[in-house]
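Table S2 (text version). Query chain:
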Amino acid sequence: MLDRMTKYNGRSLAEIGLTSKGFLPSLGNSMALVLSFSLTRFMVADLKLSPYAGSWEVVVFHLFLWSLSGSGQEMLFRGLILFSLNRWKGWKIALLVSTVLFGLVHVQRYQTLSGIILVSVLGAAWGWIALKTKNIVGTIIAHSLFNFIFAFLFVS
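Corresponding structure-token output:
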């Protein structure tokens, strides 16, 4: 399906950040962001291991589920929206619009203003990394890991 979308839009996979070029800086910066956010979250919140993480089958299922969520969101918000708006309106508008939309998508999950702001800041940072590296593969991996850790593995 992604191949058809890029053909329809006249964009190659590299133009939406699905490339090996820039992968290591994208992954390194994205994982550093996840690590720093995770350390902060563990210090501030009273997190506990999810009661659903009792069997390997459930853990593997949720790892797969949250990996799909992270990859889908990164391809949409960074790969398609951010890079398309960057070509059309410039990086500032592109980063702002993709960040606001990313935050709005997470309103139902986070429901508090502070939670929405935090996830928006995280989305803005991933957007900045994607713009600088022209690669979303690293942000996909980091976003998927983040989703798995904080949407399934640990609960407050």
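Notes on Table S2: Strands lie at 48-49, 154-155. The chain is about 80% helix and 5% strand.
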